[in-house]
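Researcher: Quick test of sequence recovery. Tokens follow.
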């Protein structure tokens, strides 16, 4: 077994006010996650004012998701090379500028360009932020609590998008969903240099440019292909071409990484079974969550007749349950262990989704939706916290950015995958029932039920995957980076204690 090396002391002393620093980092992460969903409610008004049809409006979402998902791994590695604080500040500054540009947009082209810049900036910001969190909290107990807050914020950002999008669009116009990022982002940029020390000096390294180019191209092609499934169908030449490009570039990336002296993504990192399991679980949780929020929002407005603001307000119980779950999960992990808590959270999530799938076309919120929403919030809160923790388990400071890029990439790819698969199933189910003479409301409801059941299936598969994690949790008080904290990172896959 290879010897382990403790991280530099500087990593454990990045801040004397680390909990305040965590809150600022989490605020930036909240904006990144929020921006993937807050725009949805504003799309109809935005399209009317800028003269964008349905296809063009889909690109408002895709223009953000493509560079975000495609550049995350590169962003994580750049942070490891040039400094996590530095790349975090660069990404946040770019995100602020892009948000202001989007709010000022007078044409569709200007808006789409701004959205692409937002996504690219988020790809620098997100992995660097998670890497800084892992450095701020090297002790197992504190890290569990910190990642509980982090995972909760990520889940809340997704749930809050619909609510805030409806409120801001109704009160201030569609521009407000972009402008809201500017003052919050400025607070982050001003606070972080005062809360975190400068990045420690690191040995110069050579960036793996061929690996960076191929993996970025592959991820962009994957996200593009999944987005194309929703817009033009599975067998359309665009979808098939992007899928083929993703496959070719993915194979090329693996071949390059196996031969590179300093690879962008050392393939040996996947020998860490917890990291591999955590990322796969995060992919499945992302798939379930994005499909859930999409279907739930449309179901409430198209079937139940809620307006955008009411649909947003109905997300409050789910968001509240998620916040509470994220707060108590660290204590549960300390009692039950990481793996059992993750599996239990995913089973609760699946149970809530299955319950929600039984909602009728004339559902009453308090009777049919409130209960499932609370269960779903509890399950999502627990799953986000524990899957994130599992994904960074055993990672030292030199690869913290890579780990952050991997887990964020898993969530983004999972979201695109889940929405593409389940939206296609729902459309097919609704179309078949409508052709059979079933009423439009009942046909739509049945289609959305399939989305909820499919999301539950993703959660249950995630629970099965979580069972393959190596261990329950690090011993209380064990610093990450000691031999106990890094054992899984250097043990061959399949090894046992």
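Model:
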């Amino acid at each position: 077994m290879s010897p382990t090396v403790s991280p530099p002391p500087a990593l454990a002393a990045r801040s004397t006010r680390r909990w305040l620093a965590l809150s600022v980092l989490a605020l930036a992460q909240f904006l990144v996650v929020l921006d993937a969903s807050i725009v949805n409610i504003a799309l109809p008004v935005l399209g009317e004012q800028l003269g964008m049809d349905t296809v063009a409006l889909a690109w408002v979402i895709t223009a953000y998701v493509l560079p975000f998902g495609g550049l995350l791994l590169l962003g994580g590695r750049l942070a490891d090379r040039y400094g996590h604080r530095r790349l975090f500040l660069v990404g946040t500054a770019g995100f602020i500028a892009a948000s202001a540009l989007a709010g000022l947009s007078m044409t569709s082209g200007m808006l789409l360009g701004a959205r692409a810049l937002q996504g690219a900036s988020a790809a620098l910001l997100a992995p660097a932020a998670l890497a800084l969190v892992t450095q701020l909290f090297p002790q197992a107990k504190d890290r569990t609590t910190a990642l509980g807050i982090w995972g909760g914020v990520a889940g809340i950002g997704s749930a809050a998008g619909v609510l805030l999008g409806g409120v801001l669009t109704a009160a201030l116009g569609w521009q407000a969903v972009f402008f809201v990022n500017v003052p919050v982002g400025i607070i982050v940029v001003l606070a972080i240099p005062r809360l975190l020390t400068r990045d420690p000096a690191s040995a110069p390294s050579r960036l793996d440019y061929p690996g960076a180019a191929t993996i970025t191209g592959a991820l962009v092609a994957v996200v593009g292909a999944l987005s194309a499934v929703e817009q033009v169908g599975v067998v359309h030449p665009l979808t098939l071409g992007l899928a083929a490009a993703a496959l070719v570039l993915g194979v090329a990336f693996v071949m390059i990484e196996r031969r590179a002296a300093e690879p962008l993504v050392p393939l040996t990192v996947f020998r860490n079974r917890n990291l591999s399991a955590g990322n796969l679980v995060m992919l499945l949780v992302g798939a379930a969550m994005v499909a859930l929020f999409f279907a739930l929002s449309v179901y409430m407005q198209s079937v139940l007749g809620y307006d955008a603001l009411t649909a947003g307000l109905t997300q409050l119980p789910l968001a509240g349950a998620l916040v509470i779950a994220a707060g108590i999960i660290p204590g549960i992990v300390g009692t039950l262990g990481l793996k059992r808590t993750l599996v239990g959270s995913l089973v609760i999530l699946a149970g809530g989704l299955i319950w929600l799938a039984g909602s009728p076309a004339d559902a009453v919120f308090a009777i049919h939706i409130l209960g499932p929403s609370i269960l779903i919030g509890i399950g999502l809160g627990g799953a986000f916290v524990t899957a994130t923790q599992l994904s960074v388990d055993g990672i030292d400071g030199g690869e913290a950015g890579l780990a952050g890029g991997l887990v964020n990439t898993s969530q983004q790819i999972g979201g695109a995958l889940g929405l593409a698969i389940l939206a296609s199933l729902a459309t097919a189910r609704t179309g078949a029932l409508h052709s059979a003479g079933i009423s439009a409301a009942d046909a739509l409801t049945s289609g959305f039920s399939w989305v909820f059941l499919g999301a539950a299936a993703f959660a249950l598969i995630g629970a099965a995957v979580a069972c393959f994690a190596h261990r329950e949790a690090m011993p209380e008080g064990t610093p990450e980076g000691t031999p106990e904290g890094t054992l899984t990172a250097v043990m061959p896959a399949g090894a046992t204690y």
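The chain has 18 helices and no strands.
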